[in-house]
Design a protein that fits this description.
CATH architecture of chain A: Orthogonal Bundle
Number of domains of chain A: 1
Largest sheet of chain A: 2 strands, antiparallel
Order of helices and strands of chain A: HHHEEH
Shape of chain A: globular
Structural class of chain A: mainly alpha
Oligomer: homodimer
Strand order of the largest sheet of chain A: 1-2
CATH superfamily of chain A: Winged helix-like DNA-binding domain superfamily/Winged helix DNA-binding domain
Radius of gyration of chain A: 17 Å
Number of strands of chain A: 2
Largest interface: A-B, 46 and 46 residues
Strand content of chain A: 5-15%
Number of helices of chain A: 4
Distance between the termini of chain A: 34 Å
CATH class of chain A: Mainly Alpha
DNA sequence: ATAAATACCTTGCGATACAAGGTACTAAAA
DNA sequence: TTTTAGTACCTTGTATCGCAAGGTATTTAT
């Protein structure tokens, strides 16, 4: 029930997590560990339990596809990549993100 | 189950809605209708059913306080205002927001 | 064989936006 | 005086999603 800053920051993260993940996969096909590493480099900590369901949803919505690929050390990996629909979708998120930045700026600067 | 852009945009909104609301109340005490109007002006559509529980949570967490105030036409209104803790909290959200903008920029610009 | 490392996935929980519906007060019209 | 309209407050139920915790499967080294 109580609200704390961490809580809200985590709420903020929810919103743009999908966006960030798609930005990363858009560059080149990636599997879960790669994605987590990339996010961590950008200071965005995400765990497996978050990522697997999210990727599955994006897959079944036709935004992502994947290919199995052998690994040199361990079981095969699922490399996710954007579909054409996925690129379209990412473009829309891009817009959404710009809108949000706009809204916050508008509110901040009003009556100042 | 299906994912669409509207859905995700609404997810994005969730994250920074609290931030925007606090930014608005920080300027001067406001009651629900005022807040909705301000948000609408910034293109952020929010309904009562969202706002009331959110304000209650912020109140019981000590981030907001309120004062009843008579209205010229209708029942009295609850004017919410930031407490000292609330200002501290808002400052933390400010940081969180800057961090998020940073993360997105980092991911966007990596390997370009 | 067994253990360790790596990879995939699922279940249960808590948080929260939103739709829909409800209560209460004021003032003006019937 | 009753009724209606307007304004304000609040609650309940639903769906979604991040995350912690736990589980399964494959490969490689001991």
């Amino acid at each position: 029930m109580a609200i704390n800053a961490e809580n809200v920051k985590s709420q903020m993260r929810k919103g743009y997590l999908e966006y960030c993940i798609l930005l990363i996969i858009a560059k080149k096909p990636m599997y879960v560990s790669d994605i987590i590493t990339e996010l961590k480099e950008a200071q965005l900590i995400v765990v497996e339990g978050t990522l697997y369901p999210l990727l599955s949803r994006l897959k079944s919505s036709g935004i992502l596809g994947y290919q199995w690929q052998e690994s040199l050390q361990g079981p095969p990996r699922k490399y996710y990549e954007l579909t054409d629909d996925g690129r379209q979708f990412l473009a829309e998120l891009e817009e959404g993100w710009e809108e949000i930045k706009n809204v916050v700026e508008l509110i901040k600067n009003k009556n100042i």
